[in-house]
Design goal:
Elements lengths: L1 H20 L5 E7 L14 E7 L7 E9 L7 E3 L3 E3 L6 E2 L10 E10 L11 E4 L12 E4 L9 E9 L3 E11 L1 E6 L2 E2 L3 E2 L11 E7 L7 E10 L1 H4 L16 E10 L4 E5 L5 E4 L2 E5 L3 E5 L20 E4 L6 E3 L5 E8 L2 E4 L5 E17 L6 E7 L1 E2 L5 E2 L9 E5 L6 E3 L6 E9 L10 E8 L5 E5 L2 H17 E2 L1 E2 L12 H14 L3 H14 L27 H13 L2 H21 L32 H22 L3 H22 L11 H9 L5 H17 L11 H10 L3 H9 L7 H5 L35 H9 L1 E2 L9 E4 L9 E8 L2 E10 L2 E8 L4 E7 L5 E4 L2 E2 L6 E7 L2 E6 L2 E8 L1
Parallel strand pairs: 15-23, 21-30, 38-42
Antiparallel strand pairs: 1-2, 2-6, 3-4, 3-5, 3-7, 7-8, 9-22, 10-16, 10-19, 11-15, 11-17, 12-13, 12-16, 14-24, 17-18, 20-21, 24-33, 25-26, 26-31, 26-32, 26-33, 27-30, 27-32, 28-29, 34-39, 35-36, 37-38, 39-40, 40-41, 41-47, 42-46, 43-44, 43-47, 45-46
The structure holds beta-D-glucopyranose.
C-alpha cells in the first residue's frame, strides 16, 4: 500500500509536465510604452501601454489583463495597480494611475488570461521615464560660443564637474539651435545622429534624453557638445536661402545625477562653459562637410584636457516653452555597405560603386602626410558615357573634404551632413584605392522593419527592394521627397501618397505622429496646409489638393495600421480645419480655385502629336480630394464620438459629390478629363452615382488597353490605380500594369537598373539619356505606393476599419499575372500576420499565420468543384475554422489565431 502511494506521487510531476506540454505556453512580451521599447523622454501624462501575447495555439483571445506600474525596479511603490480587468485590449491601454512626475522612471509588467482559461506568467519588467514636463524643470540656460561668429564652422562647448560616489543613475538632456553631437568623458553620447532632428523649430524644438550612467565616474568628469548648422541655419530649400530659423548656434544641456542616498546633482549649460573651434571647418546638409584633422582638439571632452586658449560662452535668451520631448525614433546608422566596384570613368575619374542608391555618408580610413586631403563627391548615377553625373543635384555640392594630420592611419566620417548616392568620386588619393578603406553608411530614422513581400518574379522582388530603399532613404526624421539635391523637404503630397505603403514596411507610428504635430503647428490660421512640413517656403505656399490632404490621410492611415485612436483625437482639429478651408474656398460646394500641383509628373510624352498626354483637370482632382478628406473626417468623427460632426459632414459630402457630377460628368457617364487618373479618383472616392460606376471602370480598363497596358498616372492617380481595377473586377489588368516593363511602368526603372524608386517614370530614357536635370531624382518614394496593392491584393494582407491595427484582419490573396507564388509577412502590433500562396500542379496552397488575440476573415479562391483542405484535412472536419459563405469565386472563412496550411485542388 505504502509502496504504491509512493509510486503514484513520484509519477505526479511527470504526468503534470506531460499534460502541460500538450498545450503551448501563453506568455506576454514586446512591452511598449507610447509605441516605443523603454522610452526615456515620455511626454504624455497618460502614456499608452501595449504588449503581445505569444502562443502557438489556435483561436487564442485575451479575456483579461492585469497591469502593475510602480516607481521602483523591484515592483514596490505601486503607482497604478488596477487589478484584473476583463478586456481583449492589448494595445494602447491608457495609463490611469497617480500623476506622473517629470524626469521620473516607472516600471511596469503585465499578465494576461486567455479564452482557454490560462493565465500567463508575469511579463519581464519594462520601464519608461518621463521627460522634462515643465519649462521650469530646465535649470540649464541656453549658451552660445563667445567667439567671433563663423557662419559655417562647428564650435565645441565644454565644462567639467565633479561627481560623488554612489551614483544610481544619470540622465543627460540635450538640444540645440543647429545640430549637436554630445560627449561625456571622451565618449560620444548615444547613437543618434543629426539631433535634435527637424521640427518647426520656432514652435516646437525637440530635446533628447540619454542614459549616461555608465559614462560617469566619481571624481572629475567632462561634458560637452559640438554644434553644426543643419536645418537651423544652413542652406535649406531650392532658392538658396539659409539662416532660415536664425543665425546663431546655441546649446542647452542638463545632466541629472541621482545618488544612493536620494540626493540629486544637476550639471547644466551656463556661462561658465568654454568654447573653441575644432576640426569641422564647414558643414552643410546639401553641400557636405570639411574636416581638418590638423585642427583637432584632441581629448577636448576628457576630464584631464587643458582648455587653454579657449573662449567663454554667452547666455542666450531663448524661450523654453517650445521645448518638446522626442517621441519618435531618432536617426541612426543602419546598413554598412562595402565597395562593389572601383571604376575609372572615360573622363579618368576614380569612382566607387556601392551597388545601392542610399542616404548617408562614406566613412574612410586613410594614411598620409599632414595637409594631404581627399575629396569625396556623391552621385546617384553615371551618365550614358559612364561618367560621374551630378547635374541632377542642382546646387547641392554633396562633397566631403578630409584633410589629414599625417602619421598614423586616420578615420574620417562627417557629423552634420548626409548625401543621397550610389557612386562616390574620390579625388586626392596618392596611392591605389583600397576598397576596404571605404564604407558607405546608411542613415535613417530607426523605425523597426515590419513588413516583407516576395514573389516568384525577380523583377517585382527588385521593385519591392527599391520601395524599401526609397523609404530608408527618405525617412530621415521627416519624410523627405528626396535625399540628394538642394531640396530634401517634407513634401506633404509625397508623404501622404506613400504613407500606407510605408506603414507596412516599417513601424512608422512614432515617426508620423511626430511629423503630424508639425503639420498642425505649421497649418495656417485659415486651415491651409503648407506644401512642405516643416514649412520653410512662404506662408502662402500651401493649400494644394492632394498635398494638403496629408492632414486627413496620414492620421487615418495610422489608425488603420496601428489602431491608434489618439492620433485621430489629436489631429482632429487639423483635419477639420483643412476640410473647412476647402469648404471656404468653394462656391456651391465646388472647389475650383487656387494653385494645385495636380497629378504631378503624369505621363507626358515630349512629342505629343498623338494627343496621348494624360492631363487631368486640376479642379476635377481637387473636388475628388475635397470629398475624400471630408469622408475621412466623417469616419474619424465617428471613431472619436463626434456625432454632430458626423451628420454635418455627411451632408457636406453629398453636396460635394453632387457638385462633382454637375461639373465634371456627362449624362452618359464620361468624365471631362478622359484620363486614367480622372477615372481612378472618381471611382476610388465614390464620386459617381452607383449606376455609372461599372461603366466608368470599363472606360478606365479600356484606356489602359489603348495605351497597350501602360499607366499614364502621376503622383495622385498612381496609388489607387490598381486598387480601383481590382475593386471593379479588373485584377488581371492591374497585373498587366504591374508586370509591364516598358515606359511608363513600375518595372521600367527596374529594367534600367534602378535600386530605388525614381521621381519620374523615365528618369533615364530608353536611349539612356537623362530627363531634365532640374527635377530628376533617383530616390523619390511616391511611385513606390504600388507596394500597398502588392501587399493588400497580391499577397492579400489587409486591414479592417472595424478592427483597426489588424485586430481583425482581412486576408484575400489574388494569384494572377505570371506569378506562381507570392507572400507577405507583417509584424503587426499583435504579432506576425502572414500569407504566402503558391501555384503548383493545378493546385493552390496558402499558408497563413494569424497573431494571437486577433481574428481574421480569410477569402480563399474556390473554383467550382474544387477541394479545399487545411492541414491535409477536408475543411468541413477542421473545427477551428468556420465557413461564412461564398462571394465572387471565393469561400469566406472565419479564423482565429494560429498557423494554417490550406490547399485548393481543382
Ligand atoms: C518635389 C516633389 C513635390 C513637388 C511638388 C518637387 O520639387 O521633389 O516631390 O511633391 O515638388 O509638386
Amino acid at each position: 500500500m505504502k509502496k504504491s502511494t509512493c509510486r503514484l506521487s513520484c509519477l505526479m510531476p511527470v504526468l503534470f509536465i506531460f499534460c502541460l506540454s500538450s498545450f503551448s505556453q501563453l506568455s506576454v512580451n514586446r512591452l511598449r510604452t507610447e509605441n516605443l521599447p523603454d522610452p526615456l523622454t515620455v511626454e504624455s501624462r497618460l502614456p499608452r501601454l501595449s504588449w503581445q501575447l505569444e502562443t502557438r495555439d489556435r483561436g487564442i483571445l485575451q479575456t483579461a489583463y492585469e497591469i502593475k506600474v510602480s516607481d521602483r525596479p523591484d515592483g514596490g511603490g505601486a503607482v497604478w495597480n488596477p487589478g484584473k480587468l476583463q478586456s481583449d485590449q492589448s494595445l494602447q491601454i491608457v495609463y490611469g494611475g497617480a500623476e506622473l512626475q517629470s524626469g521620473k522612471k516607472y516600471y511596469w509588467k503585465v499578465r494576461v488570461w486567455d479564452n482557454k482559461g490560462r493565465v500567463s506568467p508575469w511579463s519581464a519588467t519594462a520601464w519608461w521615464q518621463m521627460g522634462l514636463l515643465h519649462p521650469e524643470d530646465w535649470k540649464a540656460v541656453w549658451i552660445k560660443p563667445d567667439m567671433e561668429e563663423d557662419s559655417v564652422r562647428s564650435p565645441l562647448l565644454r565644462t567639467t564637474f565633479v561627481a560623488e560616489k554612489g551614483i544610481v543613475s544619470a540622465t543627460a538632456y540635450f538640444t540645440a539651435h543647429g545640430l549637436y553631437e554630445a560627449r561625456l568623458n571622451g565618449q560620444r553620447i548615444g547613437d543618434a545622429w543629426l539631433t535634435p532632428g527637424w521640427t518647426s523649430y520656432k514652435k516646437r524644438l525637440q530635446y533628447q534624453g540619454y542614459d549616461v550612467t555608465h559614462l560617469i565616474r566619481p571624481g572629475k568628469n567632462a561634458i560637452g557638445a559640438m554644434l553644426g548648422s543643419g536645418w537651423y541655419r544652413g542652406y535649406i530649400g531650392f532658392s538658396g536661402q539659409h539662416d532660415y530659423y536664425g543665425k546663431d548656434l546655441a546649446l542647452l544641456a542638463q545632466l541629472v545625477i541621482k545618488y544612493k542616498d536620494g540626493h540629486v546633482q544637476t550639471v547644466v549649460s551656463g556661462p561658465s562653459w568654454q568654447s573653441a573651434y575644432g576640426e569641422v571647418l564647414r558643414s552643410e546638409l546639401y553641400h557636405g562637410e570639411t574636416i581638418d584633422h590638423r585642427q583637432e582638439k584632441r581629448g577636448w571632452c576628457e576630464p584631464a584636457y587643458e582648455a587653454t586658449g579657449w573662449s567663454g560662452t554667452q547666455t542666450v535668451d531663448i524661450p523654453k516653452e517650445t521645448l518638446v520631448a522626442t517621441i519618435s525614433e531618432p536617426v541612426k546608422k543602419q546598413e554598412s555597405l562595402h565597395v562593389k566596384k572601383v571604376l575609372t570613368t572615360p573622363r579618368g575619374e576614380v569612382v566607387i560603386d556601392f551597388g545601392q542608391n542610399l542616404t548617408g555618408w562614406v566613412s574612410v580610413k586613410i594614411k598620409g602626410n599632414a595637409g594631404d586631403s581627399i575629396r569625396l563627391s556623391h552621385a546617384e548615377v553615371l551618365d550614358k558615357a559612364g561618367n560621374f553625373y551630378t547635374m541632377n543635384l542642382r546646387s547641392a555640392k554633396a562633397q566631403d573634404l578630409y584633410i589629414l594630420k599625417g602619421g598614423e592611419e586616420e578615420s574620417f566620417e562627417p557629423h552634420f551632413t548626409f548625401h543621397g548616392f550610389r557612386y562616390v568620386r574620390v579625388e586626392g588619393l596618392t596611392g591605389n584605392l583600397n576598397p576596404d578603406d571605404f564604407t558607405a553608411v546608411a542613415l535613417y530614422s530607426d523605425m523597426p522593419a515590419t513588413g516583407s513581400f516576395e514573389c516568384s518574379d525577380p523583377m517585382i522582388d527588385q521593385l519591392q527592394h527599391n520601395i524599401q530603399w526609397g523609404q530608408r532613404g527618405n525617412f530621415l526624421d521627416v519624410p523627405t521627397d528626396c535625399p540628394q539635391r538642394d531640396e530634401r523637404l517634407g513634401w506633404t503630397g509625397d508623404a501622404q501618397v506613400f504613407s500606407r505603403t510605408a506603414a507596412f514596411n516599417r513601424g512608422v507610428e512614432p515617426f508620423f505622429t511626430k511629423w503630424l504635430k508639425d503639420v498642425s503647428a505649421d497649418q495656417q490660421p485659415n486651415g491651409s496646409v503648407p506644401f512642405v512640413i516643416p514649412n520653410v517656403l512662404g506662408a502662402g505656399d500651401g493649400g494644394s489638393t492632394g498635398w494638403a490632404d496629408v492632414a486627413t490621410i496620414i492620421p487615418w492611415n495610422l489608425y488603420l495600421a496601428y489602431g491608434d485612436r489618439r492620433v485621430l483625437e489629436e489631429q482632429y482639429p487639423s483635419m477639420k480645419a483643412w476640410v473647412e478651408y476647402m469648404r471656404g474656398q468653394s462656391k456651391d460646394n465646388l472647389w475650383n480655385t487656387g494653385f494645385h500641383f495636380g497629378d504631378w509628373l503624369f505621363y507626358r510624352p515630349t512629342d505629343d502629336v498623338d494627343g496621348k498626354s494624360a492631363v487631368t483637370d486640376k479642379y476635377l482632382i481637387a473636388q475628388c480630394f475635397f470629398a475624400h478628406s471630408t469622408q475621412l473626417l466623417i469616419k474619424t468623427a465617428a471613431v472619436i464620438g463626434k456625432k454632430e460632426d458626423v451628420s454635418k459632414y455627411t451632408l457636406l459630402l453629398q453636396q460635394i459629390k453632387d457638385a462633382f457630377v454637375r461639373e465634371y460628368l456627362t449624362p452618359n457617364g464620361r468624365l471631362v478629363s478622359g484620363t486614367q487618373t480622372a477615372y481612378v479618383l472618381a471611382l476610388q472616392f465614390d464620386m459617381l452615382p452607383e449606376a455609372l460606376r461599372k461603366q466608368a471602370a470599363g472606360r478606365l480598363a479600356q484606356n489602359i488597353k489603348d495605351y497597350d497596358y501602360h499607366l499614364t498616372t502621376g503622383f495622385l492617380g498612381t496609388p489607387y490605380l490598381c486598387h480601383v481595377l481590382s475593386r471593379y473586377g479588373y485584377t488581371s489588368v492591374a497585373y498587366r500594369l504591374l508586370m509591364q516593363d516598358s515606359y511608363p511602368s513600375w518595372l521600367y526603372p527596374v529594367k534600367m537598373g534602378a535600386t530605388t524608386i525614381w521621381e519620374r517614370w523615365d528618369g533615364i530614357r530608353p536611349d539612356s539619356s537623362f530627363q531634365t536635370p532640374d527635377m530628376n531624382s533617383f530616390n523619390h518614394y511616391a511611385y513606390g505606393a504600388i507596394g500597398d496593392w502588392m501587399y493588400r491584393v497580391v499577397a492579400g494582407l489587409d486591414t479592417d476599419e472595424d478592427g483597426p491595427g489588424y485586430h481583425h484582419s482581412l486576408i484575400s490573396p489574388h494569384p494572377g499575372g505570371k506569378l506562381t507564388s507570392a507572400g507577405a509577412d507583417l509584424q503587426t502590433g499583435y504579432g506576425r500576420l502572414s500569407c504566402h500562396w503558391k501555384l503548383e500542379n493545378e493546385s493552390l496552397s496558402v499558408d497563413l499565420v494569424v497573431p494571437a488575440n486577433t481574428t481574421s476573415t480569410f477569402n480563399i479562391p474556390a473554383p467550382e468543384g474544387g477541394l479545399i483542405t487545411e492541414g491535409g484535412q477536408p475543411l468541413a472536419s477542421v473545427k477551428t475554422i468556420s465557413v461564412e459563405g461564398v462571394e465572387r469565386g471565393y469561400l469566406i472563412l472565419k479564423l482565429g489565431s494560429g498557423e494554417y496550411h490550406f490547399k485548393v485542388t481543382k
